[in-house]
Amino acid sequence: MFAKPIQGRTTAGAEGEVVVLLIGMRINHFRGVHHWLPVLLAMLRMLRELGRDKGRGLLGHTLLTGSPRTYCVVQYWESKEKLYAYASAPDMFHRRAWAIMNRREKKSRRHVGLWHESYVVPEGGYESIYADMPVHGLARATGVLPLEARGRRAADRFAHRSSAN
Questions:
Q1: How many C-beta atoms lie closer than 10 Å to residue 155's C-beta?
Q2: C-alpha neighbours within 13 Å on the C-beta side of residue 162
Q3: Is the dihedral of CA 129, 22, 135, 149 positive or negative?
Q4: pTM of this prediction?
Q5: 19 has which bridge partners?
Q6: How confident is the model at residue 158, as a pLDDT?
Q7: Which residue, 21, 31, 58, 145, has fewest beta-carbon neighbours within 10 Å?
Q8: Regarding predicted confidence, which is higher, 144 or 93?
Q9: Contact 112/32 with Cβ under 8 angstroms?
Q10: Distance CA 14, CA 136 (A)
Q11: pLDDT category, 149, cuts 50, 70, 90?
Q12: CB neighbours of 99 closer than 8 A, spacing ≥ 6?
C-alpha cells in the first residue's frame, strides 16, 4: 500500500505460461451483511492460507474494488493443475467454504453475487510494463526486471521466449 515506486520502466519476470484467476463478489443488498460479509472474510482467509503454503501454487494476488459493491482478486498461479488441486483439496478451506455457500445459496443469492474467470496464457500471449510504479500485478507475483531485459516495445516483450522453450 505504501510501497516505494521503482523509478523508470520495468516489466514482469514471468517465464512460460501464466495462469490468471479473476474471482470476485458483488454485494447486491447492503442490508444483507450476514450473507455477504462471510463471503468476503472467506476469501481473505483463503488468501492467508495460500500465503502460508507456497507449495500450493499461488504466486501472488492483487485485491481490487470497482465500487463499494464489487470486489475482485486477481490471482497468479504456477499452473492450472495447482489451481484445481487447491480448489478440490479436502484439507483446505476453499472446499469447506464452497460447501457452506452451496447450502446457503438459495437464501444468499439475492444478497451476494459470486463469479470467477480462469485464463491460461501461453508464453508470447502476455507482456507488461510498469513506469515509476511499486512492484505490482504480474511482476509482484513473478519478479521484476528492467524493461530492457525483455524489450522496450510491447511487440518485443510479446516475442520473448524463456530459455526452457
A1: 9
A2: 14
A3: negative
A4: 0.90
A5: 77, 120
A6: 94
A7: 31
A8: 144
A9: yes
A10: 13
A11: very high
A12: none
The pLDDT of 37-53, averaged and rounded, is: 93
Could you give the CA distance from residue 31 to residue 143 in angstroms, rounded to a whole number?
41
Q: Do residues 157 and 127 lie in contact, with contact meaning Cβ atoms separated by under 8 Å? A: yes
**Would you say residue 35 has pLDDT above 90?**
no
Rounded distance, CA 104 to CA 126, Å?
A: 38
In the chain, where do the E strands start and end?
6-12, 18-27, 58-65, 70-77, 112-121, 130-133, 144-146
Cα 78 from Cα 80, distance rounded (Å): 7
Cα–Cα distance, 96 to 165 (Å, whole number): 38
For residue 34, the 8-state DSSP code is: H
What are the CA-CA distances from residue 107 to residues 34, 38, 111 (Å)? 11, 13, 8
- Residue listed under C-alpha cell 482467509: 45
For residue 94, give Cα distances in angstroms to 39, 146, 157, 162. 11, 37, 35, 33
Q: How far apart are CA 164 and CA 48, in angstroms?
A: 31
Which amino acid is it at 31?
A: R
